[in-house]
Design goal:
eleven-stranded mixed β-sheet; 11 strands
Length: 356
């Protein structure tokens, strides 16, 4: 490839990569009247406190554990993350209010159990490529708030570079983080946390599958059986690799759901970076996954252009209404999910349609 052609391709994908950047947080904010505060549990293999961040991007061989309080402004719109740089005004923007560290994983899980509500379930969120802890914490707080989730929410934050140029570094970091994620799942299972719903976004889906595969290779079905469901949102995984991972895992946790969009521009960049190989989050033929116990839900028609299609299930207000029903069905185990669901909209009423 000549330098001219390579430069042209970089220019072509640069707008999508730039859209993945974010305002920088420089410190904690004061609480604001009328704001909602979401308390998140954070487990990470990042080192703490770099350049005013909650955690930095550097890899840590030791797991770190904390709770973080994220304030959501009174005028918050569903699906949005109202954000600014510096120390945020919590009256107008998402803002971190403070952090409390735990000395180790046992204290972390004990505190998590004390915060259990209802049926004792927990939402475990694994972020994707090009995420800082702030990015992932804001997204999880937004999901918890907009979906009305009462169960404790845990963020597993692997050491992404938080830089759109760090795609290869992030894929290496996924492999680096497998043991830490396995340790967290084992500790949750060992201390009586038997209802874990995993929501993994983008490259976090790759980490989730690699970790489940690693556990399966050790023959530990008890840990796998403690997972009540898995949702991979816009998974950045080669479909062939996914099928091999699923074959090793064997019986996948049920239900097992893939949220896809044909308009996912971030995954189209990933396809370029990986040799133009289709990514699982943009899969066109769900028949290739038949027999794996996987439900594919296509959110293409709900893409509004706001986030490049990469978060549409949790950023589009209309998609959120549909996904909330799906999440409730996963939680309660009501009914069987079909192998493939294509979501559309009634052009007269703009109401959601479910098509086969």
């Amino acid at each position: 490839m000549t330098q001219r052609v390579f430069g042209f391709l970089l220019i072509a994908i640069l707008p999508t990569l730039v859209a993945c950047t974010r305002p920088a947080v420089t410190g904690f904010s004061e609480p604001a009247a009328g704001a909602t505060v979401e308390r998140l549990f954070v487990a990470t293999q990042r080192t703490p406190g770099q350049l005013g961040q909650i955690f930095g991007e550097r890899r840590s061989f030791e797991m770190n554990f904390a709770t973080v309080e994220i304030s959501i402004p009174p005028g918050h719109e569903p699906g949005k993350i109202e954000r600014t740089s510096g120390i945020a005004d919590a009256q107008k923007f998402f803002a971190p209010l403070g952090i409390d560290m735990f000395p180790g994983i046992r204290d972390f899980v004990t505190a998590l159990r004390r915060n259990r509500a209802g049926d004792g379930g927990v939402l475990l969120y694994v972020h994707g490529y090009n995420n800082t802890v702030e990015d992932a914490a804001y997204r999880l707080a937004q999901i918890k708030h907009d979906f009305g989730i009462e169960e404790p929410a845990v963020l597993f934050s692997w050491p992404s570079a938080g830089d759109p140029r760090g795609y290869v570094y992030d894929r290496d970091s996924v492999l680096f983080a497998r043991d830490g994620f396995e340790e967290l799942l084992r500790e949750l299972r060992g201390r009586g946390q038997g209802r874990i719903l995993i929501l993994a976004h983008s490259m976090g889906g790759y980490l989730t599958m690699e970790t489940l595969r690693q556990i399966a290779l050790k023959g530990d079905r008890q840990v796998l059986d403690s997972i009540e469901g898995v949702v991979l949102m816009s998974p950045d995984i080669d479909p062939d690799v996914f099928r091999r991972q699923a074959a090793v895992i064997g019986r996948l946790p049920q239900p097992f759901v893939l949220l896809t969009s044909q308009k996912d521009r971030v995954l189209s960049v990933a396809e370029f970076l990986t040799g133009r190989k289709e990514r699982l989050g943009r899969i066109e033929n769900a028949e290739d996954l038949q027999g794996l116990g996987v439900t594919v839900v296509d959110f293409t028609e709900f893409e509004d252009g706001a986030t490049g299609g990469h978060n549409v299930a949790v950023t589009s207000a209309k998609a959120i209404r549909v996904f909330r029903g799906l999440e409730s069905q996963i939680r309660t185990g009501r009914g069987d999910l079909r192998d493939f669901v294509l979501l559309g909209r009634d052009r007269r009423t703009d109401a959601p349609l479910v098509l086969q």
